[in-house]
Amino acid sequence: MEFKKIMMVVLIVSILLISSISHINAKKNEIIIAEANWPGIRAKTAAAKILLTKIGYPVSTKFVNDVVAHNGVAEDQIDIYMGSWMPTRKDTMEKIKDKVEIAATNTDNCLYIMGVPKYVWDQGVKTFADLEKYKDKFDKKMYVGPSGWAADKIMQKAIDNNVYNLGDWEVVNSTQGATLAQVTKSIREKEWICFVAWKPHWMNYMFDIKYLKDPEKLWEDPISTVLTLVPKNFKSKWPEAHKLTKNLIFDIEVLNKWIYEIGKNNTDPEKTVLKWMKNNKKQVEKWLDGVKAKNGEDAYKVFLQNI
Q: Among 211, 233, 251, where does a domain finish?
């Protein structure tokens, strides 16, 4: 009886070891791309997955939050993450910088600051200093998104300290969805509105938005970049995929369109991006420049054969 118990324990341990080894081998034999829950990173992830899959490489995506994605790359559990926003993630990157490689800045000139519709801009509201001149048209309100957002904190501080003479203004807090619904309604009705805006985002595809200038530097870092992170050993494991990650640079206007389709129209990310690729082969050729498919052939040639 005791012997049977021992053998049962040995069997269970063996099964667990085999399972663990299989998991590790699976990790070694496929490229894992982290995917987070916002349209921009879903679009970029789809682009990388489509390109790698079409040229013969095994790929899977792993749906995780932003912190897990960064740490996953650092611990070599995730191979590619294209959503590291800087300087927002500056502190995180400082902790993991010795364990990751920045393969590329995949998007630059991203922006997060207060904006107005172009028809308001054309009437003379081009900086934060101009808001007070037209306070009655704005009803002295600024739509800053959820409480606790950077826009909420920054503009409340401006009000509290009467920066730009905004002391008698108020911030309006609501969910992201409700804020964007208010923006949509106001623009459709040609009403004056000042709201938190950012790009890339579908709002830039739908509307002509102008971002306010900030001479007092309320917003220390309104301009952001987005990095592609890979593990330190990624180049040695997947040299051709590594080349691709360095080539994958995204135009912000293209991202706005993808985000509109995915985030606003709820279309499938891979279908959206693949359709775009079929109509923009020159850009795909640039992304695949110098890359070899898994069979050793030119990647762009193989891509065309598989679409």
A: 211
Looking at the domain assignment, is residue 218 inside a domain? Answer: no
Q: In terms of Cα–Cα distance, which of 26, 88, 44 is closest to 273?
A: 44
| DSSP conformation letters of 40-104 | HHHHHHHHHHHHHHHTT--EEEEE--HHHHHHHHHTTS-SBEEEEEETTTHHHHHHHTTTEEEEE
Q: pLDDT averaged over consecutive 10-residue blocks of the chain (307 residues)?
A: 45 41 54 93 98 99 95 98 91 96 96 97 98 98 95 96 98 95 98 97 96 94 94 98 99 96 95 98 98 98 97
Residue 216 lies in a domain: no
Give the single-character DSSP code of 212.
P
- Global confidence as pTM: 0.82
Is 247 found in the same domain as 195?
A: no
Residues listed for the chain? 307
Q: What is the dihedral of CA 189, 129, 123, 112, to 10 degrees?
A: -50
Which residues are CB-neighbours of 270 under 8 A, at least 6 positions away?
46, 49, 50
Residue 285, domain extent: 2-109+223-305
Nearest-angstrom CA–CA distance, 143 and 227: 29
Q: What tokens does 261 get? A: 């389709």
